Amino acid sequence: MFSKKDLEQIKAKGISQAKLAQQIKNFEQGFPFMHIVKAATVGDGILRFEGKEVDDYVKMYEAEMPKNQIFKFVPASGAASRMFKSLFSFMENYDGSEKAIKDFEGDDSFGSVFNFFKNIKNFAFYEDLKNAIAKSGGSIDKMIEKKEYGQVLRYLLTTAGLNYGGLPKGLLEFHQYGNKTRTPLEEHLVEGANYCRDKDGIVDLHFTVSPEHKRLFKNKFRNSGQVVANDNETKFQSYFSEQQSYTDTIAVDLENQPFRNADGSILFRPAGHGALLENLNTLDADIVFIKNIDNVVPDNLKATTYRYKKLIAGVLLKYQKQLFAYSKQLSKLENVSENLVNEIADFLQKELCNEFPERFAQMHLREKVDYLTQKVNRPIRVCGMVKNEGEPGGGPFWSKNADDTVSLQIVESSQINKEDAGQMAILKNSSHFNPVDLVCGLKNANGEKFQLRDFRDPQTGFVTMKSKDGKDLKAQELPGLWNGAMADWNTLFVEVPIETFNPVKIVNDLLREQHQG
Description:
By secondary structure, the chain is of the alpha/beta class. It has helices at residues 4-13, 17-29, 52-64, 85-93, 98-106, 113-118, 126-135, 140-145, 149-157, 184-195, 214-231, 277-280, 302-330, 338-351, 365-376, 421-428, 513-516; strands at residues 35-39, 41-42, 45-47, 70-75, 175-177, 180-182, 202-208, 235-241, 249-250, 268-269, 287-291, 380-387, 395-400, 406-411, 432-433, 437-441, 462-468, 471-477, 490-495. It has two domains: 23-79 and 172-516, Spore Coat Polysaccharide Biosynthesis Protein SpsA, Chain A (Alpha-Beta Complex), CATH 3.90.550; 81-166, no CATH class.
């Protein structure tokens, strides 16, 4: 299947032949569907805290914050092109004819191009767009008056002006503060200053970015980071990493043979956000917050975000402390009693929602100790969950694992067998979804880093249909970072307010009240 030249290409990427063979096998056999037992709901897999309980967890985290090495981990490689999909289409097809103008004015829905132009002055990037057009000798007001909408978009989306269609989402101007603006990158810096500050007053942030945008991110941080640091009386250390080449996956044709580029080389593709497990694995941190680049709000709405970030971190510290205590007790075999084993088993099952296999009850004491030792010595994550209001994406479920255990998992709809009416009924009736709001504990009771690769489920990947050069191909994604890549972690779900979830999927989302400040 592979020539000498192919093998050289594979070796250069750092991919083993065994891993490649497994990827091709995955294409041939497909990935098994997840088996969800029931949706996680408040009181049955999802914790809800109110009033004083929230205050107590917040205070707990604030007291412990200076004692820990904390990182804010932000997946930021997403290109902004998807945000502007409708604008690109309009720009390419609009010809200024009466029919084109009529069609334009006939759709005044929230996401429409008409609504974009109607509210164009309310976008934080408006002044920059206006200046880019003026720099070329034009006037945005006159262009709009003459209904030259395509020209305006050309200055917004292409290298003729701001090139927003070619930038990463994290570097677009999202929010207006008087005569200043902030990008998502800067908003994450502000957030970090408020809940990730260590004992030295330093805030560590790690952004995963695309190779072609790394320099732009670094320049933006260099130019703006000190301003935000001064405003918040802190210091920032920012790190920018890329998806590792060895996490790429091979693409195949419809016959499951390696897909070839025009020059005969094998096509490899980035393996999705699951590949970021390798980036996360490099962090030497006690506590890591994970949140997507586009889920940010202006300052006037940040208080709720801060409060609930500290809440879930407090929950993590409480449960982690108990797991550490149990880990140390289990390591002293001579002192492990039947009562202690039962106490730890109850904690893992009732508090951390692990359902053990039937064989656990028949195990000898030493077998139970080994089993429980493995269960307490794992990374831990606390995941914020918001009430489902029709948003796409994964949700919280009780899921059956390959070893016959049942545990809490974040499951994407694409992982569910659409032909199974029972599974679809569970999916349809779920009450919450995953906004990507996590806090993670990456070290064991002795302060040593876990090897995160040891706690993923390689059988939870995805196969998708793509095309290149007019030819169909099949692509493969690694288990998602908060799905299969964290499948064997100790997991807690906590309800957080919908106000903490404000992603920007299309450009007109920036017109929503939450982003207008």
